[in-house]
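Two entries, shown back to back:
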Amino acid sequence: MSKKISNETIQTLQSLRSIRVFDTEKHISEEDMQTILDTSVRAATASHRQSYTIIHIDDQDTIRQVFGNNADRALLYCADTS
């Protein structure tokens, strides 16, 4: 018998999903991008190492080469063990 948890944080974490199809016509404002970055650096990491680098890409040619789409911005999260 499992107890239903009503904790808002747990509900939020359990509702997370990865999105693999992007709307390439949608523009992300500077304010929204800053909110995404501010939130990203506060996300939990394995063993609280926080050993990653976030690369913000806004060059459309680079985005097309790396991700294969026409988005106007991209964030690339890289494991950083050094």
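entry 2 starts here
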Amino acid sequence: MAPQLPTDLALLDEIYKMNYGQFVDFSDANKQRSSKIWVPIDIETLARKFGLDPDIVFGRLYYHLNEKFSFQNSEGSKSEFFAMRIGSDRHCINFPYLSSIVASLKDERMKFLTATLIAGFSLAISLISIFIAVST
């Protein structure tokens, strides 16, 4: 049986949690990666956390999420979300952009849950009103 695929939010939130410490520990004096904003991610570890094949996670990042979140700015240069290689680092995420995407996806989820909860509450009130009206 195939494992459940994580949502974009679950996948990106896990990348954020796994790599936040590495992002904030960057310093020019002790460079452990090529760039502050580009953080290399461990796709195999990420895949294990979700019980997936690493190629599924890589494909999702490279073909789907990079296409979805990369953009061209007003000057015409492209800002990537995921890069195969930055300097000597492999499989890199634009970490500040990732944090914005995760925050936005969490906000969208909260709005959806709030609207669904209000609709459910309204339905319950309506059903109670109908029951009271019919029983009297």
